[in-house]
């Protein structure tokens, strides 16, 4: 699932929940990339209790994410997860 800020890849996994984040140099210098990774990690951490179990996730940041704030990143991540139907019932 793709949004303007990120791309979400997922597949069923045998080892429970696994998460990976990829932020390329196209997003910005190391300070910006690390800030983006921290925002993605924290937003995903907050969503873990409401996600379906048994999947492996990969979140790939796209360049416009560098100028986005915490709330916008969360909205984009939720939108991608919702479109992929990865929330438990009721989300």
Provide an overview of this structure.
- By secondary structure, the protein is α+β, with helices and mostly antiparallel strands.
- The protein has a domain at 6-67: Ribosomal Protein S5, domain 2 (2-Layer Sandwich), CATH 3.30.230.
- It is built from two helices and three strands; from the N terminus they run ββαβα.
- The protein has helices spanning 30-47, 70-83, and strands spanning 6-12, 18-22, 55-61.
- Strands 1-3-2 form a three-stranded mixed beta sheet, with helices on one face.
- Helix 1 links the parallel strand 2 and strand 3.
- It starts with 5 loop residues before the first strand and ends in an 8-residue tail after the last helix.
- The mean pLDDT is 94.
Topology:
Layout: E1 6-12, E2 18-22, H1 30-47, E3 55-61, H2 70-83
Parallel strand pairs: 2-3
Antiparallel strand pairs: 1-3
Helix pairs in contact: 1-2
The pLDDT mean sits at 94
- CATH second-level architecture of the domain at 6-67: 2-Layer Sandwich
Number of strands: 3
Distance between the termini: 17 Å
CATH topology of the domain at 6-67: Ribosomal Protein S5, domain 2
**Residue share in helices?**
25-40%
In terms of structural class, how would the helical and strand content be classed? alpha+beta
- Identify the CATH class of the domain at 6-67: Alpha Beta
The helix/strand order is EEHEH
What general outline do the C-alpha atoms trace?
globular
* Main sheet strand line-up: 1-3-2
